[in-house]
Amino acid sequence: MVSAQDSTITSSSFSDKEIAELFSDVGEIDALVLFERELARVQESLQIIPEGIGKEIYAVLENAKFDTELLATGFENDGIPIPALLKQLREQLEPAVANYLHFCATSQDVIDTALIIRIKSAVEIIGKNLKGLTAELGRLAQKHKATVMIGRTRNQSASPTVFALKIVNWLAPLQRQQQRLNELLPRLLVIQFSGATGTNAALGNKGREVSSALAAALGLATADSSWHAQRDTIVEFSNWLSMTAGQIGKMAQDILLMAQNEVGEIRFSGAGKSSTMPNKFNPVLAETLLSLASYCRSQSDLMGSTLVASHERDGVCMSLDRLAFPPLICAAAASITQAIKCLASMSVNEEAMSRNLIADNGRIMAEAAVFELVKSMKRSKASALVRQACELSLTNNSHMIDELQSLSDVNLNWDELKKPKNYLGNAEEVIDSVLQINS
Amino acid sequence: MVSAQDSTITSSSFSDKEIAELFSDVGEIDALVLFERELARVQESLQIIPEGIGKEIYAVLENAKFDTELLATGFENDGIPIPALLKQLREQLEPAVANYLHFCATSQDVIDTALIIRIKSAVEIIGKNLKGLTAELGRLAQKHKATVMIGRTRNQSASPTVFALKIVNWLAPLQRQQQRLNELLPRLLVIQFSGATGTNAALGNKGREVSSALAAALGLATADSSWHAQRDTIVEFSNWLSMTAGQIGKMAQDILLMAQNEVGEIRFSGAGKSSTMPNKFNPVLAETLLSLASYCRSQSDLMGSTLVASHERDGVCMSLDRLAFPPLICAAAASITQAIKCLASMSVNEEAMSRNLIADNGRIMAEAAVFELVKSMKRSKASALVRQACELSLTNNSHMIDELQSLSDVNLNWDELKKPKNYLGNAEEVIDSVLQINS
Amino acid sequence: MVSAQDSTITSSSFSDKEIAELFSDVGEIDALVLFERELARVQESLQIIPEGIGKEIYAVLENAKFDTELLATGFENDGIPIPALLKQLREQLEPAVANYLHFCATSQDVIDTALIIRIKSAVEIIGKNLKGLTAELGRLAQKHKATVMIGRTRNQSASPTVFALKIVNWLAPLQRQQQRLNELLPRLLVIQFSGATGTNAALGNKGREVSSALAAALGLATADSSWHAQRDTIVEFSNWLSMTAGQIGKMAQDILLMAQNEVGEIRFSGAGKSSTMPNKFNPVLAETLLSLASYCRSQSDLMGSTLVASHERDGVCMSLDRLAFPPLICAAAASITQAIKCLASMSVNEEAMSRNLIADNGRIMAEAAVFELVKSMKRSKASALVRQACELSLTNNSHMIDELQSLSDVNLNWDELKKPKNYLGNAEEVIDSVLQINS
Amino acid sequence: MVSAQDSTITSSSFSDKEIAELFSDVGEIDALVLFERELARVQESLQIIPEGIGKEIYAVLENAKFDTELLATGFENDGIPIPALLKQLREQLEPAVANYLHFCATSQDVIDTALIIRIKSAVEIIGKNLKGLTAELGRLAQKHKATVMIGRTRNQSASPTVFALKIVNWLAPLQRQQQRLNELLPRLLVIQFSGATGTNAALGNKGREVSSALAAALGLATADSSWHAQRDTIVEFSNWLSMTAGQIGKMAQDILLMAQNEVGEIRFSGAGKSSTMPNKFNPVLAETLLSLASYCRSQSDLMGSTLVASHERDGVCMSLDRLAFPPLICAAAASITQAIKCLASMSVNEEAMSRNLIADNGRIMAEAAVFELVKSMKRSKASALVRQACELSLTNNSHMIDELQSLSDVNLNWDELKKPKNYLGNAEEVIDSVLQINS
Q1: Which of A369, B258, C280, C401 has the greatest count of CB atoms below 10 A from its CB?
Q2: Which among A436, A431, A437 has a CA at the least distance from the CA of A141?
Q3: CB of A244 within 8 Å of any CB in chain B?
Q4: Which residues of C touch B261 (CB under 8 A)?
Q5: pLDDT value of position A250
Q6: pLDDT tens digits, one per residue of C292-342
Q7: In chain A, how many domains are there?
Q8: Is C437 part of a structural domain of the chain?
Q9: Are strands D148-153 and C347-348 parallel, antiparallel or unpaired?
Q10: What's C309's domain CATH number?
C-alpha cells in the first residue's frame, strides 16, 4: 500500500471509509457487474435478447466470483478491466446465455457508468456530511455572534470583528457549494451507453430505447450524446470536489493561525503529541485539512487534463481517471469529515481574543478614530493624527486613543471610541442573513 | 513585454483584444475610478455625505488624470494600487470634497468590485463569441451528418462514425458551458463593499443600504456577506474559463490528429509556412488552441490556491489574482475566437475520409460482423472468426469481409456488411438532438 | 484500496512492486525502527547512553511487533506515526532500556531519515532499471541506423530521418537523467538528525559527533544543517522522478502516434483487446506511459509546494510528503519498467515506414530540392517552384520531383534527388556519438 | 498589457527589468538576428557560402529594421516568427546575398538558440543577484548568531533556537541552488543547429563542423544531438527557477508569520499603507515573494508538459515555451531581487523575540527539562511531570520551571534550566559551517 489513503496506519486521516469502499476494487467490480446485470434485464424486457436470458444473467451474476489474478493479468494486457472481467463472468453462465452478456455495449460504457453509479452513492454521503458541517458551522457562528476579536487583513491587525463573521467566511462558500452541487448533478448523473464509437450501431435503431430503460433501471438519467470523449461533467465535479476541500482549507488556515501560541485564540488540547516535547499541542487536524486542500487541487488539475481526449475514446484519459479520481473524491470527502472533527476537538478561547484586543492597545480602532475625527477636520489631517497616535502607542506601550486625545483638541466621547464592540457595523445583520440560508 | 499575450508580435494568437483592454492598466483604473464615482453619488443620495459632494466627485473624476510613475511607486510600496490612486484622485478634488472620496470603503472593496465590473463586460463578449462558436459547430455538424468516416478509439480505428458525431463531441460540452455560465453568473456578478474587515463599520448601520444602492448603480447584485476572503466565486469562474479552453483543446486535438499527412482528413491550406520546407502546411491554429488549453489549466489551478486565504483579507491571494486571472481570461477568450478562426480556415477532406475507410479494408466492420455472426453461432466463435479474418486481411491486403466470408459458411448479405454507412446506429438521432439544443 | 497503485487489479500497470514495498507501511516501519536501532547502538558506542543499552535496543527491536490499530489511532491523534510507534517499541523493552530509545531525537529526524533510507534503496533499483532501458534503446537505435522514415515536425511530414534518430530523442535525455542523478545523490542521501529545532540541544555539544556516526552506520552522509525545513533536496529528486517519466512520455507519445492505423509504423500485436472489436490492437503500454508522465508531473508539482515550509518544521508539508511522494516514486519507477516492456512488446514495421515514404510522393524532399535548385537560381524562385511542384504532386497524385523536373529547366540528377536516404546529413554521426555515451 | 509583469504599474513588483528586456520582443529579435548573422559569418569562413556574403549579412543586419505589424501577421499565420522575420531581413539584403541568409537552418534552430543566448545573459544577472542575496543572508545570520528566540515546529512553540539558525534554513538551500546551477549550465548553454529533422541534411556532411564554429561564435557549446524534441534541459532549468522562488518563498513565509502583530519579531515600518487604516504596516514584500513562489511553480509545471513533445518538433510545445518561460524567468529573477529588498526593508525586533520567550513562561524548556529529569527518573515519569508543569504554567500564568520544581524533589540547578540560551546545542557550529560555504 503505497498511498497514504490506503495505508492501514494513515488512511483514516486522508480518506473516508465509506467513499473508499465505493472506489475500491470490490466497489468498482460491483458497479461494473451491476451494469451488465441491469443491461441484460432491460434488453430482455425490450425483446432485444431472448426471453429468460436477461433474468438469468441478472440472477446468476448477483453472486459472481472473481479470480483477481486473472483480472490483474487482463488489466495489464488491455489497460482496462472489462475484457478479463467479461471472460470470467461468461464462464459462470451457460454458453447460450453468455452470448448475451454485455450485449452491444463497449468497455467504456461499463467503466463510465460504473463510475457514475458510485459517484451517485458517494454524493449522497458527501452531501449529508457537508450538511452536517454547515450545520455545525452555523451553530458555532450563532454562539459567537458577540465574540469580539481582532480582524486581521494581510496578516496584520486591522479593525474589530466578531468570531461569527470569521465563521461566515467558512460557511458561506460551503453553502454555495451545496447550490453548485444541485446544479451539476443533473449533468453528472447520467449513464454512458453508446457502443464503440457513440452510435449504438450494434443495436440498429434501438439505442435510445435501451438507454432510457437502462438509465431508469440504474436510477440515472440519459445523456443526449455519448460522453466517452466529453469529459466535462467529470471535470466539473472534480473541480467541485477540489473547491470543497479548498474552502475547508481556508477554515483550516485561519484555525492554524489562531492556534499559534502567541495568538492562542484556538486550542487543541487533546491531541498532537510530540515525541519529545510535552509542551506541544499540535493543530493536527488543521494541518491535515490544509494538506488535503492542496492534494485535491493537484488531483483535480490532473483530471482537467482529460478534457483533451483524442477522437472517440482516449485510453490515456481512462488511465488518468483511474489514477486521479478515486484519490480525489476520497480526499475531498475526508476533508469534510475531518473538518467536523476539527471543529469538535478545538476549543475557542474567548479570553485570548479579549487579551489580544487589549494587547493591541487600541490601534485597531484607528479607522474608527479617523472616521470620528473626519467629522471635524480634513481626512488627511485626521489620518496623520491617528498614525502619529499609533506610533506613540507602540513606543509608549500606551492606549492609542489616549495618545490621540492628547494630540487633538476635538471634543469626542473618547471612552466609547476605545470599545471595539462599538465598531462592528452590520456584522450581526450579515451573520443572520447567512445563517438563515443554512436553515 | 514579457508575456506572449502582451507582445506586439504574438498577442493576437494568445489573447483577445477586447478582453485585454478590459484587463489592461487603463481598464483596471477605469473600473476602480468608476467604483469611487458611483460610491460617492450613491452616498450623496443616501445623505451619507453632504449634498453636492457626490455629484462633484462623479463629475470631476470622469476625466481624472494619472501619473503612472507615482502609481507604480505606490504599488511597489503598498502591494495594491489603491492608496496611490486615491492620493492622485484627491489632488484633483477640492480638499473639502476629497474628504469624501472612497468614504467608508476599503482597498479591496474597490479592487474586487473593479474586477467584477470588468468580468461582467468580458462575459458579454465571451458569451457572444461562444454562441458564435457553437453556432458554427452546429452548421458544420449539420453539413456532415452523412459524412461517414473511421471512428477511432484509443488512437486506433474502431468502427464507423460520421464526422458530425465527432463535432457533437466538440459542441455538446460547450453547450453545457453556456448552461454553467448562466448558473454561476448570479453568484459572480456581485459587488464587494464591506469595509476593512467585512462589517461596514465605518457606515454604522447603513452598510446594507449603501451596498444595495451601489450595486444597483453598477448593474451588479449584492453579496450576503463580504467575499474578501471567500474566493469561491472567482475560482468557480476561473475553472469555467479553463474548462472552456480545455474543451476547445479537445476539438484542436482531434483536428491536429486528422490533419496528419497520413490521415489527411483536414487540411490547413493557407497557413503554417515553414522557413525552409515548402511542402509544409502546419496546423497552426490547432497548435495554438492546444497550448491555450494547457495554459488556462495552469493559471486556473493557480487561481484555485487563492481559496486558502488567510483571515479577513489576504495579500498573497490578491497578488495571485493579479498574476493569474487576467492572463487566464484573455487566453480563454482567445481560445474561443481562435477556435472560430480555426474552423473557418480548415477544409474538411471528405475524400480522404472515404480513402481511409477503403484503406482500412473493412476491418472497421469487425464489430458489425461479430453481431451478424452471433445470430448463428456462439459469441466466442464469432469473435475468433472475425479476429482471424482481420489478421488475414492485414496479411493479404484483402477485404476483411471477404476473408470472413471464406472462413465461415453462414449465409449473410456480405455486400451490405461491407458498407460502413450501414453501421451507424442512431448517429443521426443523436446529432439532431444535440443540434436542437443549439437553436 | 483507493489508489490504482494499490489495487490488486491495476497496481502492476501503475506501480513498481519493489519500490512499492519500500514505501508500504511495513517498508516505512522497518526504516523507522532501523533508525532507532542504529541510533541506540551509535549512542552507546559514543558513551552517550549506558553500556549495553544500545546493543539491547538494537537486538530486541530487530523483531519488534506492532499493533497496527494502535499505530493508526496514534497517527490520527498526532498526524505523525512516531509517538505511537515509540510507545509500542518501549513496551517491548525493559523500562530502564526504554528510557534510551529515540534518545535526543525528534519525530521528524526519524521520519526524514527513514525516507532517505528507502530512497537510497529505491534509487539502486531505479538506476539499474534506467540503465536497462537506455541499453535497450541503444540496441534498438543500433539496429535502425539505416531505417529511413518520414521525419515529422509540427505533426506534419517534414523531411527524411532514420528511426534511430527518433530513438536518440528518447535516449539522450535519459542519459542526461543518469548524469543528473549522480549529481543530486550526494545532496539527497544525507541523514536528518538535529532534534526538535535543529540544534541537537538535547545532546549538548555532541550533536555532530552522533550525526557522523549515525550517518556512517546507515550508509548515508551528514547534512551541514538540519533540513527539517529545507525541502529542496526532496523537491529536486521529485523533479527528477517527474522528468524521467516525462521523457519516457515523449517516447510513448511518438509510439502512440506511430501506432495509428494510418501510420502503422509500430504495432502492438499481442495486447490491447477490446471487449467487442476483434480488429483492435490498442497501444496499451504507450497509453499507460503517457498517463504516468502526467501523473508524475502532478505529484511532483505538489511536492514543490513543500518548499514553502513554515518555521522550523511544518506539519502540512509532512502530510504532503506522505500523500504525494510514495505515489510519485512508484509511478516514476513503473514508467521505467513499463517502458522496457513497451519496447519489448512492440514491433517496428519497416515496411510501413517505406510505404509512408512512398505515399508521400517525394514532397518530403522539398527542402532537399530547394537546396539543389538554389545552386542555380534565387532562393525565392526555388522555393516557389518547389511549392508549386508540391501542389501539383498533391493534385495529380504524382511524384513531386517529377513535377519539379517538368517545371524547371535545370540540369540535375533527378533520380538521386528522389531518394530520401540521400538526404540524411550527419544522422549516423549523431547517432554514433549518442550511442557511445551509453557504453 | 494583460500581464502584471508588463503593467507599467505593477511590473517592478513581479518582474525584473533587466531580464524582462532580454525576453521582450526586441530582446528576442536581437537574439534571432544575432544567430543569423553569426551563422552567415561562420558559413563564409567554412566556405559553405561564397566569400563576402557572410560578412555582408553580418554587417547589414546589425542595423536591421522591422515592421512589427508584418511580424505579427506572420506569427499569426505561421505560429512562429521566423518566416516573416526572414522575409524582412532578406528585403534588406541584396538578392544574391539574401539567398544565403538562414542557410541550411530550420526555424526552431533559430528560436531555440535565441532562447539560450538570452538565458545565458539572464543567468549571469540571476547568478550575480543570487550571490548578493546569499551574501546578505550570510551577514544577517552572522549578526544574529546569539539572538535567542522561540523555535517553532508545526506552528507551535517548540524549543529555543537562534535567529541565525532560522536564516540558515533560508540560506543553505540557496547555496545548493548555486551548486545546481553550476551543474546544469553545461547541459543548458548549447546551441540548437540541426536543420529540419535533426540531420543537418542540407549541409551534407558538414553539419558538425558548422555547429562547432557557430557555437564558438556565440559563446555556447554544441549538443550531441538535436534537442528540438528533447526539452529536458529547458525543463531542468525551469525547475531550477521555480525552486529558487520556492525557497525564497519559505523565507517569506517565515517573515510573514514573524511580522504578525501578536508575534512582532519582524516589522516593516516604511511600507504597506492601507487606504483607511493608519495602524497598518503590511508585509508587502513577503506577500509578493509568496505570490511569486506560487506563480513560478505553476509556470514551471506547465513547462514540464513540454517534455512530451511529438515527433521531431512540436508546435504546441513551442507555443508553451513562449507562454510560460519568459514569465517564469522574470518572476524567479524578481523573487531574488525582491528578496534582497525585503531583507533591506525589514527590521528585526530582538526585543520582541525576548518578549515572546518570556511570555512563553518557560514551557519551551519542556524538552530540556525532560532530559534533565531523565537523569534521575524514568522517561515516562519525566514526561508526565513536565506535561503537568506545562499545564499548571498555563493555568496559573506561572513559569513552567517553577511549577516543575514544586512538583519534583530532584536536585537541579533550576535557574540555569530557565535560560533558553543554555539549550541551543550545536547551533553555533551549524551556523558557522553553513556561513563558511558562503565565503
Answers
A1: A369
A2: A431
A3: no
A4: 150, 156-157, 360
A5: 98
A6: 999 999 999 999 999 999 999 999 999 999 999 999 999 999 999 999 999
A7: 2
A8: no
A9: unpaired
A10: 1.20.200.10
